[in-house]
Specification:
The modification Phosphohistidine is found at residue 78. Keywords: Phosphotransferase system, Sugar transport, Transferase, Transport. Pfam families: PTS_IIA. With 104 residues, this protein is mainly α. 86% of the residues lie in helices and 0% in strands. The chain contains three helices and no strands. It has helices at residues 3-32, 36-65, 74-102. Helix 1 packs parallel to helix 3 (74-102) and helix 2 packs antiparallel against helix 3. The longest helix is centred in the first third of the chain and has 30 residues, at 3-32. It is elongated.
Length: 104
Amino acid sequence: MNPEDVQVVAFEIILNSGNARTIVHEAFAAMREGNYDLAAEKLEESNKELLLAHQAQTKLLHEYAGGTEIKIEIIMVHAQDHLMTTMTLREVALEMLELYKRVP
């Protein structure tokens, strides 16, 4: 796989995980306002973006598993970091939503 193809995958991951992060922050805002239904909708929407990022990542993994040599550059490291931190942020947001619901 040539370096340009790897960069395209990295940017797909960054784009979609960035979109997901923005939506998670919208969910946090909805939680603060007490709009828990909207927060839940936003968290579901963020998951759709994360799935797109994950699909881009999976394409790369399939190539690698098939024997394709892939040279990893710093942009891919950044993309993976971006994806994993956004996934973690979403998990925290899901827990926070449940806690917000318990506070009278």
